[in-house]
Amino acid sequence: MRYEYKFQKILNLKxxxxxxxxxxxxxxxxxxxxxxxxxxDLLKKKExxxxxxxxxxxxxxxxxxxxxxxxxxxxxxxxxxxxxxxxMNARNTMxxxxxxxxxxxxxxxxxxxxxxxxxxxxxxxxxxxxNMHLDEYSSVQYFHRGGN
Length: 148
Hints:
The model has no long low-confidence stretch (mean pLDDT 92). The protein is rod-shaped and about 125 Å long. It is mainly α. Helix content is 91%, strand content 0%.
C-alpha cells in the first residue's frame, strides 16, 4: 500500500503560487534598487554641483552663470522629487509583494505540516495493521499446535 496525500494537488498549486510570489518579489526588489540608485546618483550630482557653485562663487561668478546654476539645480530638484516618489512607489510595491510572499509561505507550510501529520498517521495505521496481522498469525499458529 502506497501513501498518497489527498491534498497533493493543492500543495503543488500553493508551491507554484509561492514560487511566482517569490519571483515577483525579487523583480520588485530589483526595480526598487534601480530607482533608489538613480535617486542616490541625482542627490550626489546635486551635492557636487552645489559644492562647485560655492567654489566658483568665492572666486567670482557672473550673474548669468549664477542664474544658469540655479536653474539647473532647480530642475535637478524637480527630478529628485519625481524620483523620490518613484522610490516610495517601488518600496510600497516591494513591501506588498513581500507580504504576498509571506502569505504564500504560510499556506505552503500549513499544507506541508498537514501532509506530515497525515503521513505519520498513515505509518501508525500500517504498524497497527501489521501488528494485528502478526497477532492473528500467532493465534493461528498457537491453535494449530494444539494450544500448548
